[in-house]
Amino acid sequence: MAARAQRGGRAAAVAAALLAGALLALGQAAVAAAEGAAAASPHRRFEYKYSFKGPHLVQADGTVPFWAHTGNAIPSADQIRITTSLKSQRGSVWTKNKSIFEYWEIEVTFRVTGRGRIGADGLAIWFTEEQGLEGPVFGAADKWNGVGIFFDSFDNDGKKNNPGVIVVGNNGKLLYDHQNDGSTQALASCQRDFRNKPYPVRAKITYYQKTLTVLINNGFTPDKDDYEFCAKVEDMVLPSQGYFGISAATGGLADDHDVLSFLTFQLTEPGKEVPTPDAEIPQKDKEKYQEEFEHFQQELDKKKEEFQKEHPDVQGQPADGFFETVSDRELRQIFEGQNRIHLEIKQLNRQLDMILDEQRRYVSAVTDEIAKRGAGVPDHQGQISQQEIDTVVKTQEEVLRQVNEMRSSVADMLRLVSGAQHPGSAAGVYETTQHFNDIKEHLHVVKRDIEHLVQRNMPSNEKSKCPDLPPFPSCLSTMHFFIFVAVQTVLFIGYIMYRSQQEAAAKKFF
């Protein structure tokens, strides 16, 4: 037994030693692979002449430095709106100079927003041998020589694969296949929904050693580095020099296409790094620039001290808090619109409560009169009969029931609007309009039932006379009263719907 236990212990020791050796070998292999990957990663250098980013994006003359914009593109201080949410719009921005590097990487931040469930047409990112300033392919020229990465919003071929990202190459001779959304010419693609996201969508496009890679950040999180793989094209030959650009277009449907930044980086193989700009500057010029920088810094410090002395109440407060960003302005406009709808529905609910109280008082008066006449007094010529009075009472009860249904419908609508206080709440506006249509339909049904009951109970050879009711000084026809109430309610609801549509139509120009 002791010998057997000794042999078992030796076997366990040998197995542990083999396992430790295997783990050590795996660790060394992993370290070697990591070192190889680090060594193989390209050198990355920012190229400001092929990039733009806010704030202070536009110069005094309305142009963007090193970039040219055409068509319906509108530059602003913090972004470039390639197209507005209007039909048949085209716009684009292109670099003024050709790139002087073979491999590159670009990071594009953009927003595609629209009021509809479906958008059109889409946005495209370009690297071409010549500028495609205007044309039918997402606002840029066809028959390009280079590559286009298309963010297609509209499903032309009906395959339900849009919105999507499509990589299409061209040698300058092919026409883009619009009817099939470029599927017959696509080198790679992926299906991604980039419309109406809470955060800007980001695309990272890398061309290195004849391989094009597309990574997408869907805009669900504020993390700028949260990219996921979209497409990859190997053995792709692009022009050694070309123009970078971004374009967009709208059709029968329309979206706002906004580009917040376009950052370009030069990629260089390891060991072939180009000298930095500081290395090319002579020592005398460096000293001169350093003296000028120090002088400017001193002047800036003096101005800061003077400003703090003149404005002691704003010391320690960040300057960014005094300005409103684009996203904050959009959120404020959405919440203000929702609050206006909320107040209008409350006003409508109060109006319905007033109508309901009037109807109850009228029914109470008619019921009291019926009780007074229930003593068996015979009807006289020219007075309304007991059967007609019963009919009127039933009609009043039916009206009360319809008004209660309308009140509950308005209450449901109020809850829906209260729960729709978030950006992109197009479904809440649609539900509100649907409830308004339901209320209008209920009022039409009430009006039709009242007219039918009055015509059915009115004798053909004589006109109906109003009952002699002591509480009322004048004779008022029941039909005229309810028609007046119904018409007044319909006009009030129609005015609210018209006002809501006008305010919604005006929002998209902000």
From TrEMBL:
Location of this chain's protein in the cell: Membrane
Signal peptide stretch: 1-29
Residues passing through the membrane, by range: 479-498
InterPro entries (UniProt xref): ConA-like_dom_sf, Intracellular_Lectin-GPT, Lectin_leg
Domain L-type lectin-like: start-end pairs: 44-267
Keywords on record: Membrane, Signal, Transmembrane, Transmembrane helix
Membrane topology designation: Single-pass type I membrane protein
One protein family per Pfam: Lectin_leg-like
Identification of the protein by name: Protein ERGIC-53
Organism for this UniProt entry: Apteryx mantelli (North Island brown kiwi)
